[in-house]
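User: Fold both of these, please.

Assistant: Here is the first one.
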Amino acid sequence: MIPDAAGKTNSSESDPERLGRLLELELIHKRAEWKQAGNRYRAFRSAGFVFLFLLIAGTLLAFLFVFSRVNEQRANPRSSDNADVAKP
C-alpha cells in the first residue's frame, strides 16, 4: 500500500506543474493570436487612412481644375458671343 500512496503524491505534485505549463502554452498561443489580430486591424486602419487621403486629394484636384476652367472662361469670353453682338 505504501508504493501506491507514493505514486499518488508524485502524480498530484506533477499535476500543478503540468497544469501550469499547459496554461503557459495556452497563454503564449493566445498572445500570438492577439498580435496577429492587432496587425490585421492596424493594416486595415492604415489602408482606410490612405484611401481617405487619396479621396480628399482627388477632390481638391477636381475643384482646382473646375475653378481654373471657370476663371479662364470668365477672363476670355467666347468669340461667338462677340460676333453676335457686332452683327446687328
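And the second sequence with its predicted structure:
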Amino acid sequence: MTAYLNSLGEYYVNEKRIRRLMRKMNLLPIYPKPNTSLANKEHRKYPYLLRGLAITNPNQVWASDITYIPMRRGFMYMIAIIDVFSRKILSWSISNSMDAAWCTSVLKEAITTYGKPDIFNTDQGSQFTGIEWTDLLIKNEIKISMDGKGRATDNAFIERFWRTIKQEHIYLKPANGGFELRKGIEEFIQFYNEKRIHSSLGYSTPNAVYLTKKNEAA
C-alpha cells in the first residue's frame, strides 16, 4: 500500500504511517492465527444449556473464552470471564501459553471474588473440557454448558467483548511487550466495566447493572 500511494505521485508516506492508519481502520491482513479452541477427542463434551434460556440476573450465567492478542512484535493469549446478564468482566489474564492451570486460576479468582454462577458456558477447547477445569465447576455445583461444535455464536457475549477490546484498544494501541499489554488491558477493562455504556443495558454500565441487580436480589 505504501509503494502504491507513493507511485501515484500525489502522496508521500512511509510504511510506519500506513501501518498505523490501517490498524486504526481495522484493515488487517488475513493469515492463519493460532487456534485457541483445539478440542481433545478423549474429553467429555457437555450439552449447550443456554438455548431459549431467559437470563435475568447476575451470576446466573458466566461465560469464558481464550483469544489471540497481537503485539508490535509477537503475540499473547488472553482469557476472560464475563457475567452474561450484565456484560461485566469478572476476571482475566494474559499468558504466552494456554495451559489448563492458567485458565483454572482465572476461574478460581472469579469464584473467590464474586461467588459462583448457576451455569458456566465455554466452547469445546481442551482447556475447558479437561479435568482440572470441569472438576472445579462440579466441585462448586456449577452446571457446565458448552457451545455446539463450530458454533461460535453460542458464546456470543464473550465474542462481542473480544471484538470491542480489539477494535477499541488492541488494534489502535498495539503493545510493545507483555508489561505494556497488561497495563493497557487493565485500564481498558476498568473503563469497560465502570464507564462504557451499553444500549442493550439501557445505556448503563456493566458495573452499575451487576451491582444494582445484586442489591435488589439481596
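The chain has one domain: 61-217.
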